[in-house]
Amino acid sequence: MTPTEMAALHAVCFTNTRPWGRAEFESLCAQKHTKTFCLPSGFALIQVIADEAEILTIAIAPQAQRRGIGTLLCKKISEDCGKNGVTKIFLEVAADNHKARGLYQKLGYREIARRAGYYTSGREVAQDAIILAQNLTSVAKII
């Protein structure tokens, strides 16, 4: 998936916040610590530093959501990270993103912190950013 395609999909998926543009995806994809995971109707970007990874974004085409694509991407990320010495994966999700939160909980991510009122753009009420983490040593039990 090209940075242009990523930006187009991101714009469709992230209507409550400012979607990332082509230049942002080009810049991220060019960084040595960034990895991209792509499927025909979705993608994920992560950054890996030492033994930790952060999921920067996951975007699934609206018509393909709730069909296991997010689960598949997250499992690919966990498997790849586990093979490459990563012990913990972090991500951030808006408190009102119930679909994503359900997915992450099912996959073993646990809340470790909150940023109160972090998400304001495009929302009538500010939403907390929930910081989640997954310990890869316990993933085998979940997957």
TrEMBL record:
Residues 1-137 form the N-acetyltransferase domain. NCBIfam families: rimI (TIGR01575). Acetylates the N-terminal alanine of ribosomal protein bS18. Belongs to the acetyltransferase family. RimI subfamily. Signal peptide: none annotated. The keyword Ubl conjugation does not apply. Its EC number is 2.3.1.266. The keyword Transferase applies. This is [Ribosomal protein bS18]-alanine N-acetyltransferase. Keywords: Acyltransferase, Cytoplasm, Transferase. InterPro entries: AcTrfase_RimI/Ard1, Acyl_CoA_acyltransferase, GNAT_dom, YpeA/RimI_acetyltransf. It is an enzyme of class 2 (transferase). It is found in: Cytoplasm. It catalyses: N-terminal L-alanyl-[ribosomal protein bS18] + acetyl-CoA = N-terminal N(alpha)-acetyl-L-alanyl-[ribosomal protein bS18] + CoA + H(+). It comes from Amylibacter marinus.
